[in-house]
Amino acid sequence: KLSAYYALYSRSSSFIEIAARILFHELQPPGHLPVSVPGIGYEILEATSPDPDQVIHIYQNVQGSGSIEGTQTPAPSPVALKIGDPITILTGTILDHNANQVPDGTVVRFSLYHDGDSVPAQVIESQTSQGIAQGNLIIDQAGEIIIKAESGSAVNSDILTYEIPPAQVTPTSLESTLTPGPTLT
Question: Which of 173, 174, 159 is nearest to 59 (CA)?
């Protein structure tokens, strides 16, 4: 039957002053609970899981354009891709229900679809580091490919679409050797 629950971790005078100012509504305390409190329905594992209302931003990580710790900006220019090429996908920062980055080790699934198929041709899982995940997919056929990401109940992401050209067939010359046949007289 509490209307508020505040936890202070020291008895120093500055903490006591802050507690009084909070109780008299002079300050609005920031932050979120670092533990589960079943009496108010706050479960830490749920609170730190990916927020389902967000859109996960994804980018192609072009060689030399950044890393998992780098800034999340779209690739500066499209890179020609062909069958057999790996493609590295990077997420933006994934947020939890408290609008903080998700904990390290949160699983992210990257899915590659062909020509509008509803079942992914490839799915790889990666774990977050500092709220960001990175995955490598292999381009396995020509045509349109679509890449998406999801994490927990956060299933909406940007969509990356690529048109992969058919494999180049190198023409081979067929040389036939003629063998002399019998001559008719």
Answer: 159
Percent residues over pLDDT 90 in the chain: 54
- To the nearest 10°, report the CA torsion of 107, 108, 111, 116: 130
User: What whole-number percentage of the chain has pLDDT above 70?
Assistant: 81
Give residue for tokens 């500066």. 76
Residues in the chain: 185
CA 171 to chain centre: 41
- pTM recorded for the entire structure: 0.72
Q: Which residues contact 79 (CB under 8 A, 6 or more apart)?
A: 60, 62
Compute φ and ψ for 184, nearest 5 degrees: -95, 140
Q: What is the pLDDT of residue 185?
A: 55
Please, what is the average pLDDT of the chain? 84
Contact call for residues 90 and 131 (beta carbons, < 8 A): no
**Residue 183 clears pLDDT 90, i.e. is over it:** no
- C-alpha 23/C-alpha 15 separation (Å) is 12
pLDDT tier at 77 (50, 70, 90 boundaries)? very low
Provide the strand spans (E) within the chain. 58-60, 86-91, 107-114, 122-127, 134-138, 143-150, 160-164
| Side chain identity, residue 51 | D
